[in-house]
From TrEMBL:
Keywords: ATP-binding, Cell inner membrane, Cell membrane, Membrane, Nucleotide-binding, Repeat, Sugar transport, Translocase, Transport. It is found in: Cell inner membrane; Cell membrane. InterPro entries: AAA+_ATPase (IPR003593), ABC_carbohydrate_import_ATPase (IPR050107), ABC_transporter-like_ATP-bd (IPR003439), ABC_transporter-like_CS (IPR017871), P-loop_NTPase (IPR027417). PANTHER family: CARBOHYDRATE TRANSPORT ATP-BINDING PROTEIN MG119-RELATED, D-ALLOSE IMPORT ATP-BINDING PROTEIN ALSA-RELATED. One of its GO terms (molecular function) is ATP hydrolysis activity. The keyword Transport applies. Residues 6-242, 253-495 form the ABC transporter domain. Its main location: membrane. It comes from the Bacteria. The gene is rbsA. This is Ribose ABC transporter ATP-binding protein RbsA. GO terms for cellular component: plasma membrane. GO terms for biological process: monosaccharide transmembrane transport.
Length: 501
């Protein structure tokens, strides 16, 4: 194999109360894609931040192009030819796509004038390469989350770097966007670029990566070519033990109907009707953009409806705001945990109890002992990696933030719990913990709606599955009669019955 272009060895990094990296190592080879794998909080993002000079390492060494290297900051590593796409977006919503891509290094002509034409042309070319169908003059805030991510990717490749790091780049992408990204990754690789690819999606790893490095608890566990390993072996390396059955579906006798939606229309949702019993998990499947999130937002009051009825335990409700939805007993855990889920500057405790203050208060007083107990329970139950409940949530790893977001919804003890992509960015071990918790709430008689693009997850966890297409429900399946092919055919708008006829 070629000589590594970049080598990190035995890197150590501690934060107050956390040893994030404990002799972590990584090699990046030119013309190859290296997967960096590990559970939530294993230290992947931290290692990349040490590499690019965002964090100072405590110990260890780094070499780049055969020379010892230490970067003073992202600008420094960027100039040396190393680009990074961070797990969290770093773009400015009020600027255009092109302005975001070339921020601080706009092409200039004589007299230092910005050459706008050239900037927009170059940005348009980058977008075309990634198959993004927007003009570079579009404002960033007019793009979907996935499209914004594509802009971040366009920016990273615009530097023509020799090493490109991608920290969970496909989290918010549609399948088509992911395919375009993979095409570009292959081109970059063939041009000799070394790529670090971080993802929890095993399928992607086997699709696009050449080698794998595994970290566990900040330690280097091993490096091997993808062709020489299997999913099971990889999971074992990551979690340090074998995982049994991933989807522990349980049988619960369903109770009375809890939620009934009749003819709901508005905000991109068309004439949707369904019902949900106590102790039932209803999966909602469909392609990205099928209107699933919109439907959920209308149900819990974040988006307005024009027509239709929502009954909760036999009583008609009309939630006009998320607070209102919550008061009625409907909790929604957003797919966009940063945008409308968590307050990154507040602590784990504050984030979790934010919505549950009603339940935790007596008169005007918050019962702090109850709050602390409930929060600690969730930290334990969810196995949330944090030195304590007072840690600022922005310091938690991405997957652990997601667990806090789910705990936050559960703290309100809702009657209906809506989970929108609950395991996105969550590692295999933690996924299972989340599934087990969902089951526990199911057994307690909670009604749960599980919106997910992960088909095995929907199939494995739900009792019944609705499929959406263009804002409508286009199919309903009993989980035991459904399979991936049927769901997919339905999601793209084929009618199953016609086929059978
Ligand atoms: N700025 C910080 N201050 C305090 N602790 C931090 C900080 N950054 C990271 N950590 C801690 O370091 C550990 C490693 O986090 P890191 O974000 O590198 O994990 P990760 O492997 O990227 O996980 P994920 O898959 O969830 O994104 C975690 O326990 C995290 O809480
Ligand atoms: Mg991370």
């Amino acid at each position: 194999m070629a000589q590594a272009i970049l080598q990190l060895s035995e890197i150590e990094k501690a934060f107050p109360g956390v040893k994030a990296l404990d002799k972590a190592s990584l090699n990046v080879y030119p013309g190859r894609v290296m997967a960096l794998m590990g559970e939530n909080g294993a230290g992947k993002s931290t290692l990349m931040k040490v590499l690019t000079g965002i964090y100072l390492k405590d110990a260890g060494s780094m070499s780049y192009r055969g020379q010892p290297a230490a970067f003073q900051g992202p600008r420094d590593s960027q100039q040396a030819g190393i680009s990074i796409i961070h797990q969290e977006l770093n773009l400015i919503p009020e600027l255009t796509i092109a302005e975001n891509i070339f921020l601080g290094r706009e092409p200039t002509g004589p007299f230092g004038r910005i050459q706008w034409r050239r900037m927009y042309d170059e940005a348009d070319q980058l977008l075309a390469r990634l198959n993004v169908k927007h003009s570079a003059k579009t404002l960033l805030c007019d793009l979907s989350l996935g499209e914004q991510q594509m802009v971040e990717i366009a920016k990273a490749i615009s530097f023509e770097s020799s090493v490109i790091i991608m920290d969970e780049p496909t989290d918010a992408l549609t399948d088509t966007e992911t395919a375009s990204l993979f095409q570009v990754i292959r081109e970059l690789r063939d041009q000799g670029c070394g790529i670090v690819y971080i993802s929890h999606r095993l399928k992607e790893i086997f699709d696009i990566c050449d080698d794998i490095t595994v970290l566990r608890d900040g330690k280097f566990i091993g490096e091997c070519p993808v062709a020489e390993t299997t999913e099971d072996r990889l999971i074992e390396m990551m979690v340090g033990r074998k995982l049994e059955e991933q989807y522990p579906r349980i049988a619960v006798t369903h109770g009375e109907t809890c939620l009934e939606v009749i003819g709901l229309t508005g905000s991109g949702v068309h004439d949707v009707s369904f019902s949900l019993k106590r102790g039932e998990i209803l999966g909602v499947s469909g392609l990205m953009g099928a209107g699933r999130t919109e439907l959920m937002k209308v149900i819990y009051g974040a988006l307005p409806s024009e027509r239709g009825v929502i009954n909760l335990n036999g009583k008609t409700i009309n939630p006009v705001s998320p607070q209102d939805g919550l008061l009625n007993g409907i909790a929604y855990i957003s797919e966009d945990r940063k945008g409308d889920g968590l307050v990154l500057g507040l602590s784990v405790k504050e984030n979790m109890s934010l919505c549950a203050l009603d339940q935790l208060s007596q008169g005007m007083q918050i019962r702090h002992s109850d709050e602390v107990m409930a929060v600690d329970d969730f930290i334990r139950l969810f196995n949330i990696k944090t030195p304590g409940r007072d840690q600022i949530i922005g310091n938690l790893s991405g997957g652990n933030q997601q667990k806090v977001a789910i705990a936050k919804g559960l703290m309100t003890k809702p009657k209906v719990l809506i989970l929108d992509e609950p395991t996105r960015g969550v590692d295999v071990g933690a996924k299972k913990e989340i599934y087990q918790l969902i089951n526990q709430f199911k057994a307690d008689g909670m009604s749960i709606i599980l919106v997910s693009s992960d088909m095995p997850e929907v199939l494995g966890m739900s009792d019944r599955i609705l499929v959406m297409h263009e804002g409508r429900i286009c199919g309903e399946f009993d989980a035991k009669d459904a399979d991936q092919e049927k769901l997919l055919a339905c999601a793209v708008g084929k009618t199953i019955n016609e086929e059978a006829a």
